[in-house]
Amino acid sequence: MIGLEDRRIVAQNIVMAHTAGARLRLACETAGIDERTLQRWKAQEGLTTGDGRPNAVRPIPGHALSAAERAQLLAVANEPRFAAVPPARIVPMLADEGCYLASESSFARVLRQHGQNAHRGRAKTPKAVRPPTTHVATAPRAVWCWDMTYLPATVLGRWFHLYLILDLYSRKIVGWEVHATDDSDHAAHLVRRTALAEGIAAMQLKPVLHGDNGSTLKATTVLAMLNWLGVKPSYSRPRVSDDNAYAESLFRTAKYRPEFPTKGFATLQEARAWAASFVRWYNFEHRHSGIRYVTPAQRHAGDDHAILAARHALYTEARELNPARWSGNTRNWTPIGAVTLNPERDSVIRSHGAYTDKQLLAA
Q: Does residue 292 lie within any of the structural domains?
């Protein structure tokens, strides 16, 4: 869009060049406009009033949200339970309750119109990372990720240690413990307890347990326990910080929860109580963006197929009731297939070709 003053200057220069003997078409091309554009400016008072598009009155589409519907969307988005939840999670949560109000983009548009489209929560907007040794999980209990993180205490320089084991396929936390010290015995005990809880002994194919290169997770005590359980250990590459992205993503989610005490935990019991509450929320309430916004417990139990099918039926019904609001197909609620950890070797991924819908990165 060319401003009025620039239009006048361009037109004046073209007229001067044309008067001096230049061809009008070539003069317009040199100025960066089409010959037809100059003719339209002269015929429609474009050199007097300027471009009328910014001030044009455009009719409201017939399928646009009404004022009452926009007010309802804003009221729902400002409910206490959605205070730290983006539209991408609000809509699936409402769908599970049998309620469809509008799409994620409509929620975002209404929030933006009211100045409420800022990133919700304490975390910054995530940045893309390089996906680096490949493991493919096609079902629960196929690949586990584990790691240890520090939980601050109220006493400066003191820390509590949170151990977590995450199922790669379902994103469910299948094992966790909080201790006052970092010791390989704690890690070995956690692996044994998790293996018993998940029924690994009855499985023909044991899971792979992927972790970083920390001394605790590579200790002889831990390796002996893994060998006894039949679990195959896997470790990140040296000096590669993102080889265990799913576990790191989980810790990031934990430490940016509103309930996480910014000043630290007073006692070990308090840290364990918070960890228990977080695991319960994460497994049974958190709609995970990497698995079509179902909870990890639902996907771990295999209930995600029925839930996503119900969402698809609800969306189809909503489109049939008001087809003018849908420009194409409904949202894709197809269950996520195989999940890859560090998808580096394409040959390994292609060997699981039956699972075409793969999740490549942690969410």
A: yes
